[in-house]
Amino acid sequence: MDITDRKLAETAPMQALHGITHHLENSPLATICWDREFRVAFWSQRAESMFGWTAAEVMGKTPLDWQFVFEADREQVNQTIAQLFSGINTVCHNRNYRKDGSVVFCEWYNSTLLDEQGNLVSMLSFALDVTERKHAEAALQASETRFRRYERIVSATTDGISLVDRQYRYQIVNQAYLNRFNKSYTDIVGHSVSELLGQEVFETIIQPRLDRCLAGETVQYNEWFEVPALGRQFLSVTYSPYREADQTISGVVVSVRNITPLKQAEEAVRQSEQRFQEIAQTISQLFFVRSAITGEFIYVSPAYERIWGRSCESLYQNPDSWLEAIHPDDRPRINQSLANQFTGKSVQREYRIILPNGSVRWISAQIDLVRDEDGNLLRFIGFAEDISDRKAIEFVVQQNEARYLAILEDQTELITRFRADGTLLFVNDAFCRYYGVSRDEMIGHHYQPLIYPADQAAIDRCLAALSPENPVGSVQHRVCVNGTMRWMQWTNRAIYGDQGNLLELQSVGRDIDDRKQAELQLQAALAEKEVLLQEVYHRVKNNLQLIQSMLQMQQRRLNNPEAIQALQDSWNRIMTISLVHEILYQSDNLAKINLRDYIPALVQHIATSYHLIAPNVVVKTEVESIVAPMKKAICCGLILNELVTNALKYAFPEKKSGQVTVVVTADCTRSENMITMTVQDNGIGLPQSLDLSSIKTLGLTLVQDFVEQLRGAIAVESGQGCLFRITFNLKS
After folding, report:
1. What is the fold of 19-136?
2. pTM, two decimal places
3. Inter-axis angle of helices 630-650 and 698-709, nearest 10
4. Which residues pair with 477 in a beta bridge?
5. Under CATH, to which class is 283-392 assigned?
6. Which has the closest alpha carbon to 665: 593, 579, 580, 596?
7. pLDDT at position 533, please?
8. C-alpha–C-alpha distance, residues 278 and 226, integer Å
9. Nearest CA-CA partner of 458 in 479, 480, 431
10. pLDDT digit string, tens, across residues 358-402
């Protein structure tokens, strides 16, 4: 029986297994078979060479039984194992240890074998050593990182940077270069330099220098360019050869920096130096710079020759020659100042010099010290000027001040100067003697403690009222002198600056206590006399009223109408005088009377007295507020009494109706203070042939007499009624 086929069938699986094993052993992948407990069941020769452990060393162990998995990757490996136990095939990357302790990067391909019931039978893993690839990737990533950093640096720099090839075309430009020319990336890259900057600029300025750079030379130059949106700009340009790995030059690296501000600053410095030279040539002051290390003069302005009468060159040759001109009396002080000038920050000196012609001048100098960061003295910078004229003025001012102080000290009045806040600046000897204090006790202190407290407000009001237009004011107040209260009168003068600002105040005071006491006594006496005068007015008024009563009694006993009328007229005249005394008795002013209070009451009384004679006549008054002396007021009242009485008695016969108007006005626009009184009626009037001077009636005679007493004038107008106008000067 031929069993060849059967034998072949029996040996085929073994041959296949042997073949698979051979392929696995010779595969570049490490092959590991795990049982269902994830223990090593097979460990290929490639696994031995890759990891260093033999199959015998790891057989039956899990990955965690020996130092196989990199610590940081264990969590990831555990997750992969869990997936395999779940029947999930995986691909993962993690680090493993070799037996020698080195680390290998592995790429794992994991699969599971399940039986027909889906139970896990075993697991198979292929491991690929990707260490070199990982290192290459890390190197590439580092390179890319460095490139990105370089790219950011180039983009961040304010210098415009570009790469130009040998055909003068832009290959790379940074953002600053784009900003410089106000272009986009596509507007420049791939385009020629001549397209961007113009053919003429390219051929005359740029191309010759680019060619030198392409020949291997680094070229640097500064030039003015027209830059879009910026205009004419001064640029610093550097061309550097761009070399390939084989050192061939394939292009030019262009670096452009805008140094227009620097150029402008240089120009400003140049102009400043020029102006400095012009100023130094023209100013009257001497300006100098001297080294603190060598003692030599670095700069001396031409004013030295005019002030010292010596050449600047002599000072450069002999830096101490200026000391030869110092006045002998001032030389010790100046030598001491020179010895001390190395400390501090600045030095000020005033001294005299003797010129070659023998004349003497006063010099004022200020020297500032210049130090380095460590405080070491480097140089002296100083100014010196001729102050001879100022010194002469100061001498005159000092003499005048001395004379002024001597005059103040010789005065018997109290003289003081003080600030607006009351701080005393000066008091004379009379002030000190009066208050019994020394000058030192008063200067710098407030004057308020000397003032009687209740009078401080009056002083404040006086000082507050002072102004540049009204700088002088006077005030009387009480002061405390050795515990005694005395009256003083102060004349205050405010002293203002050119801008109207208050500088200080000067006051001259005198003791008026005796005069004040006399005034108080006089006021008391006047008060007593006023009381007495009121009593006199009261008694006169009462006596006049008594006379009026007697006239009325006599009038009632008479039957003769003319006699009765005569007594009535007399009664009215007495009433006119009595009314003045009544008003004065009730008034605070015993010497003067307001005509507006007096005349309307008088006229109303007259109208009432003659109401039976002229019942249909209306009497009106218009009187301004005029204050008149008592004597003039009585004269005015008597004049009005006669004129109003005559109008009521004679202007309206047969009891006709009409009006009598009394007007009293003052012409305030005239310095004479003229008063005008008019009495006007619309009655029958006076005959046209009437001559006022020829009238001999008692009433009009009295009117003319009273007008003469007023030193006034009277005028009469007659027509449709009658008008009397009396004018007089209130103050004559």
Report:
1. Beta-Lactamase (3.30.450)
2. 0.32
3. 150
4. 488
5. alpha beta
6. 596
7. 47
8. 34
9. 479
10. 999 999 999 888 888 888 888 988 889 988 888 888 888 787 777
